[in-house]
Automatic annotation (TrEMBL):
It comes from the Bacteria. SMART domains: HTH_ICLR. This is IclR family transcriptional regulator NdgR. Residues 53-222 form the IclR-ED domain. Keywords: DNA-binding, Transcription, Transcription regulation. The keyword Chloroplast does not apply. PANTHER family: HELIX-TURN-HELIX TRANSCRIPTIONAL REGULATOR, ICLR FAMILY (PTHR30136), TRANSCRIPTIONAL REGULATORY PROTEIN (PTHR30136:SF39). Gene3D superfamilies: 3.30.450.40, Winged helix-like DNA-binding domain superfamily/Winged helix DNA-binding domain. Residues 1-52 form the HTH iclR-type domain. InterPro entries: GAF-like_dom_sf, HTH_MetabolicPath_Reg, Tscrpt_reg_IclR_C, Tscrpt_reg_IclR_N, WH-like_DNA-bd_sf, WH_DNA-bd_sf. Pfam families: HTH_IclR, IclR_C. Transmembrane segments: none annotated.
Length: 238
C-alpha cells in the first residue's frame, strides 16, 4: 500500500497514514524497513520517495540490451588503447563484469564476464560509488582503499583512475555510463600493467574511455527499452 501511494509522488509520513488508513506507528515501521532495503528513500524535505532498489531490479532485466550495445564499443576501446576493456555493473556490495574485450596477446589483466570484484577498490568501484546519495556514499567508503577526496575528484573530472588498488601492479581508468535520468548505471573500464598504463593512466587514457562511456550512454538513451526502469529516478547528484 505504501509503494502504491508513492507512485503519485513524494509523501510525508502523515500523508502516507492518511492514504493507507494504517496506524501511524505501523506506517513508520513499514516505511523504515523499506528505506533500510532501499525500496524507499527520503528527499531533501524529508518526504518518502521511491528508492533505488526497484531500479536495480528492473536494471537486471535490461542487462542483455546494455551488454549487446557494449560489445562493439569495448572492442573499439581495446583496439584504441591496446588494453583489456570491461563493463561493470553494481550488484549489492559487489561490482560484476558483464562484458569484456580481452587484449589478444602479451601481459594482460584478465577479468572474465561474471567476475565479481570488490566495491572497495579500483577505478570502476570509484565511478559506481561517486554519484551515490550521501548515505550510500558514507557506507561505501567504510574500508575502501580510496578516500572522499578521490571520489570528489571523480565527480569533478568525470572519470576515475587507480594504481594497484585492486591488485598490485595493475592500473585502470573508468568512466560512468548513465541512464536517461542521468543516474550512473554502469562503468566502462580499461585495465592493464602499470608499466604500460603508466603511473598517470588517466592523463593517457581518460579521453578515450570517457568517449566510449558517452557513446554507450547515448545508445542506452536511444533504445526504446534503454531506460532499464530508470526513467523515474531522480537526476544524479553531481
Amino acid at each position: 500500500m505504501i509503494m502504491d501511494a508513492l507512485e503519485a509522488g513524494p509523501a510525508t509520513l502523515a500523508q502516507l497514514v492518511e492514504v493507507t488508513g494504517l496506524a501511524r506507528p505501523t506506517v513508520h515501521r513499514l516505511a523504515s524497513a523499506l528505506v533500510h532495503h532501499r525500496f524507499l528513500t527520503r528527499d531533501v524535505r524529508g518526504r518518502y520517495v521511491i528508492g533505488s532498489r526497484l531500479a536495480e531490479l528492473a536494471s537486471a532485466a535490461g542487462d542483455d540490451r546494455l551488454v549487446s550495445a557494449a560489445g562493439p564499443i569495448l572492442l573499439k576501446l581495446r583496439d584504441a588503447t591496446g588494453e583489456s576493456s570491461q563493463l561493470f555493473r553494481r550488484q549489492g556490495e559487489a561490482r560484476v563484469c558483464v562484458a569484456s574485450a580481452e587484449r589478444p596477446i602479451g601481459l594482460r589483466d584478465s577479468i572474465p564476464v561474471g567476475t565479481q570484484l570488490s566495491m572497495k577498490a579500483g577505478s570502476a568501484a570509484q565511478v559506481l560509488l561517486a554519484w551515490e546519495d550521501h548515505e550510500r556514499l558514507v557506507d561505501g567508503l567504510q574500508g575502501a582503499r580510496f578516500t572522499p577526496t578521490v571520489l570528489a575528484g571523480v565527480r569533478r573530472r568525470g572519470w576515475g583512475e587507480s594504481l594497484g588498488e585492486r591488485e598490485a601492479g595493475v592500473a585502470s581508468v573508468s568512466a560512468p555510463v548513465r541512464g536517461p535520468s542521468g543516474r550512473v548505471i554502469a562503468a566502462v573500464s580499461i585495465s592493464g600493467p602499470i608499466e604500460r598504463l603508466t603511473r598517470q593512466p588517466g592523463r593517457k587514457f581518460a579521453g578515450v574511455v570517457v568517449a566510449a562511456a558517452h557513446q554507450l550512454t547515448e545508445l542506452v538513451r536511444m533504445s526504446p527499452d534503454g531506460d532499464h526502469g530508470l526513467k523515474d529516478e531522480p537526476p544524479a547528484k553531481r
